[in-house]
Design a protein that fits this description.
By secondary structure, the chain is an alpha/beta fold. The chain contains ten helices and nine strands. The chain has helices at 7-19, 35-47, 65-70, 75-84, 95-98, 118-121, 125-140, 152-165, 194-213, 219-233, and strands spanning 2-4, 24-29, 50-55, 89-91, 144-148, 170-174, 236-245, 261-269, 272-279. It is an enzyme of class 6 (ligase).
Length: 281
């Protein structure tokens, strides 16, 4: 595996590969890698000749400076995991490398995606996400980019970036990876105690309930039932739970058979913000 820490070195190496018509996949991460990330890389290896995994804790997408400070950065372990699955390239730049000028101007019209759910709860977050992903797309020039379904709204935002900027990148969505009991894998799970992890399983049970009865029950009643599952567990603070159309993420009260739907859920357990979702069609 090749490790690069500067844009110039990575660009030069990728240029050589591109001359041989190799198909390049990009897997952007913020490190603290787990099985979910590794599955993305394994899937990327199936659809591309060369896989670039970027590890960069992007400061512009954090609303809370303390959250940025607490974000885990186990670099040595991350590299061992990448080498263990034969990732081709690891790109691990500094903040100064990716943002040589402080306060770089950036704004992308994200429409309603920036005003609902994560967009509303974390103002400016998706501007930061699209800013760094655009930088990575321009640097790596991937044929395909792999993202996990767990951050569903983010995927819709990245698709919007690709559409607005007319980028020749195919967005490949990989299913959410869960542990044996159903908890969506996340770097933030590291901050949960064993008891907290057990409580967090209620998120999966709640979403499964919605999935199971989506086409049978009244949606308002179904949402109430799903919330009850979370509240019965105790010590879970629900930030939002919504049943939405997939592209606009507009909340619905009736099923439109012409569209796809998704249940979105964010809740706090032991002071840790957990995000999950489930496709319903």
């Amino acid at each position: 595996m090749r490790i690069f820490r500067t844009k110039q070195a990575l660009r030069s190496y990728l240029g050589e590969l591109r001359e041989t018509k190799q198909r390049i996949a990009l897997v952007p991460t913020m490190g603290a890698l787990h099985e979910g990330h590794l599955t993305l890389i394994k899937e990327a290896k199936e659809i591309a000749d060369v896989v670039v995994c970027s590890i960069f804790v992007n400061p512009t997408q954090f609303n809370d400076p303390s959250d940025l400070e607490r974000y885990p950065r186990p670099e040595e372990n991350d590299l061992q995991l990448l080498q263990g699955i034969h990732c081709d390239i690891a790109f691990m730049p500094t903040v100064e490398e990716m943002y040589p000028k402080t306060g770089e101007p950036w704004h992308l019209d994200l429409g309603s995606l920036e005003k609902v759910w994560e967009g509303e709860k974390r103002p400016g977050h998706f501007q930061g996400v699209t800013q760094i992903v655009y930088k990575l797309f321009c640097l790596v020039e991937p044929d395909v980019a792999c993202f996990g379904q767990k951050d569903f709204q983010q995927i819709m935002v990245i698709q919007r970036l690709i559409d607005v900027k007319k980028l020749p990148v195919i967005l490949h969505i990989c299913p959410t990876i869960r542990n044996e009991e159903g908890l969506a894998l996340s770097s933030r799970n590291m901050r949960l105690s064993a008891e907290g992890e057990h409580k967090a399983l209620a998120l999966y049970r709640s979403l499964r309930h919605i999935e199971r009865y989506f086409k049978i029950r009244n949606l308002t009643a179904l949402r109430t039932e799903a919330l009850d599952i979370l509240h019965q567990e105790g010590e879970i603070e629900v930030e939002y739970l919504a049943i939405c159309e997939t592209r606009s993420l507009e909340e619905i009260d009736q099923i439109d058979p012409r569209k796809k739907h998704v249940a979105l859920l964010v809740a706090w357990v032991e002071g840790v913000r957990l995000i999950d979702n489930m496709l319903l069609d």
